[in-house]
Amino acid sequence: MSSLDTFARQKLADLDAAALRRTLRPTLRGANGRAWRDGQDLISFSCNDYLGLSNDPRVIAAAQEALATYGAGAGGSRLVTGNHPLLPALEARLARHKGMPAALVFGSGYLANLGITPALVGPRDLILADALSHSCLWAGARVSGAEVVRVRHNDLDDLRALLDRHRGRHRRALILTERVFSMDGDRAPLPALLEIAEAFDAWTLVDDAHGLGVVEAGCRAPLEMGTLSKSLGSYGGYLCAAQSVVDLLTSRARSLVYTTGLPPASAAAALKALEILEAEPARAARPLALARRFTARLGLPEAESAVVPVLVGAAEAALALSAALEARGFLVVAIRPPTVPAGTARLRVAVSAAHTEAQVDALADAVAELHPRR
Fold first, then answer.
1. What is the mean pLDDT of residues 120-142?
2. Does the active-site annotation cover 153?
3. Fold of 74-262
4. Taking the C-alpha atoms of 273, 277, 280 and 283 in order, what is their torsion angle to the nearest 10 degrees?
């Protein structure tokens, strides 16, 4: 047995002992919130397809047409192979939707955040990141070489104090936050946050991965990024910003320059999904309404987005509750450290416009029975 194999086996044993090992389970997704796993028909509340568009026939048809017209792949980096026509069209549509001057599409949301921050700030600069920011925001911050300071979650007083303490020693400052936090479902206090940022000449990057199409109304940050893989049911990431910023990132964002462009079918699917989102406001309003129905039925704090955490505590207990719900026909995956802080393992309930009121009520009743609030 090699030293590498020995190392991996020991690390896996440690993860098993802490109930933190992750495995991949074959799962087939379908329309109307359905999923099939191990031969069982399930109602899935573990998918970020918030508007149910990944299985919409109109979105599928748009992807199929692009596949037939442009082929399966982009062929290389957009700067080498060239822009296929769907990408500028998608960028123009995203910018218009966000009310921003320009947009730039990346291969994924993770790649977007891995490229945006290092292209804008560096070793002599300052980054202030909300403590619950997504892993890709932290990854981009660390790659940049800037000084990175953690801000208490949604704590404006802490943000102001940290800027007051650190801002004067740095050329540039960048604040990282999310419109909707992916594991808690709560929202950043953006209007007040942007006022503080302006007072200290700090730029703000808002990750809107879980807000687009659901709770995105309101003010805009100078840097608005997000994904095409959640509410739009496709794949890819984007940034909306000033034209000058987009032009700079086209030359300097390494995760754009040095990777293959988005496949044509993904761009076409996102374009059609964005068209549907804007044409069907009732669909966009449904996830939040259903999430609030769920929290009201369980006596939880009112949902602020389509994401509702059901806190359990220990990783083992979260896994057991998830398994018990699966036995009753619900797919609700347990979220454990390091994705969430130690002692806060949970079920992350993701509500979709594809769900029915009866499905939401049934899940709430099952959770209340299996995990009564103390």
1. 97
2. no
3. Aspartate Aminotransferase; domain 2 (3.40.640)
4. 100
